[in-house]
Amino acid sequence: LDMVAQALELARKPHVVVATPGRLADHLRSSSTFSLRKLRFLVLDEADRLLEQGCADFSADLELILESVPARRQTLLFSATLTATLSELRGLAANEPFFWEAESEVRTVEELDQRYLLVPEAVKDAYLVHLIQTFQDEHEDWSIIIFTKTCKDCQVLNMMLRKYSFPSVALHSMMKQRQRFAALAKFKSSIFKILIATDVAARGLDIPAVQVVINHNTPGLPKIYIHRVGRTARAGRKGIAITLVTQYDIHLVHAIEEEIKLQLKEFSVEEQHVLDILTQVNVTRRECEIVS
């Protein structure tokens, strides 16, 4: 959106301003008339993402915003997950903050087939390629979402899958907004059948017809797992979620199973098929990492 048009809107002194940290900080830096000195309420939605130093680091923008608001204000933080950063922030508060956590009785839906695949870390990508090839061969019209931990992994996997001629598109927070919208539009319209995404896409995505979710990494928090696998088996439809579990992730799987009150079933694959493509997949991965 145009900065000048937004500045004119802000000059009218609106009662409520909804903004991303980056754009709000830009206005604070570029305008001598725009001020937050009379602000009474500061609301941080998706607070865990805003405070997390990952793909998109908002710390510099948030620091400027917090320096610009009055000390006497009410600050409200909303988050779908209680991360270590939020817990630490809660402990640092001068006054004991009000804390409320909503509990849902339904962790995951019955229509969702939840599986795990135990794989060595070094060969995980070969298993991923084999899984996608299997689903593409058996169900050409199925849509697949692959969740990754980092923006770099997201970008590298997208490049790698495209080298295997899979119809994939990436979605992560380092992309510009119009690029994210374009990627989602292509996935929703089935131009691309595979969406590779970081957890920025796990919140609020409205894609009703996704048949498969693959967790390229085992989520560190059960709630993140629930958000991810909740992208499939929606509105009474059936779906399958497969989590690639390495030798270092067993305790994470146990925590997930305890939270969802369900034991994940093992997903079986033809090991020889994976071995047949292992060397080529690893070489392709390294090539993509070099150019990414």
Automatic annotation (TrEMBL):
InterPro entries according to UniProt: DEAD/DEAH_box_helicase_dom, DEAD_box_RNA_helicase, Helicase_ATP-bd, Helicase_C-like, P-loop_NTPase, RNA-helicase_DEAD-box_CS
Gene Ontology molecular functions: ATP binding; hydrolase activity; RNA binding; RNA helicase activity
Cellular location(s): Nucleus, Nucleolus
SUPFAM superfamilies named in the record: P-loop containing nucleoside triphosphate hydrolases
GO CC field: cytosol; nucleolus
Gene3D superfamilies per UniProt: P-loop containing nucleotide triphosphate hydrolases (3.40.50.300)
Taxonomy, superkingdom: Eukaryota
A Pfam family hit: Helicase_C
Record protein name field: RNA helicase
UniProt organism field: Cephalopterus ornatus
Encoding gene (name): Ddx49
